Amino acid sequence: MRQRVISVADEGPSFTERVYTVVHGIPAGRVATYGQIAEMAGRPRAARQVGYAMHRCPANLPWHRVVNAQGRLSLPADSSSGLAQRRLLEAEGVVFIGGRIDLAIHGLGSSAGD
DNA sequence: GACTTGACTAGAC
DNA sequence: AGTCTAGCCAAGT
């Protein structure tokens, strides 16, 4: 019977949990898109779920390094979190051009910025 | 187990 | 460049 004995070890960390690990692995001064993170977490199409995971905003998680594919913050610019995110990114050396981030510079894999 | 929701993305208009 | 639609996936109810 392939009834798969349910065990905690078999369950493993949920996708969201893995997202936290990936996001936490983003070096300062760089940003990653939801799709990028989703892909690193093992679900290339679960970009939405990444945002959902960020919504939880767990402590010690550099959620501010997560931006959308356009290099812009997905949070409302007038929200406290939105302002905080931009402030944190600028504090890490991220440059905002026209209100958006150049993923070609700060995106993962980019040597620039180091 | 089906329905709803959401910090997404890419394509079309 | 801005807006709308469709596809996507996981978590919560």
Structure described in brief:
This protein is mainly alpha-helical.
Structural class: mainly alpha
Mean pLDDT: 87
Radius of gyration: 16 Å
Shape: globular
Poorly predicted runs are: none
Write down how many β-strands occur, each being a DSSP E stretch of 2 or more residues: 4
Q: What strand order characterises the main sheet?
A: 1-2
Distance, first to last CA: 53 Å
The amount of helix comes to 40-55%
Task: Report the portion of residues in β strands.
Answer: 5-15%
Described by strand count, sense and barrel closure, the largest sheet is:
2 strands, parallel
Helix and strand sequence: HHEHHEHEEH
- How many helices? The count is 6
Task: Please provide a written account of the structure.
The chain has 114 residues and is mainly alpha-helical. It has 6 helices and 4 strands. The strands form 2 sheets. A two-stranded parallel ribbon has the order 1-2. It is globular, with a radius of gyration of 16 Å. The chain binds a DNA duplex (13 and 13 nucleotides) through helix 3, helix 4, strand 2 and helix 5.
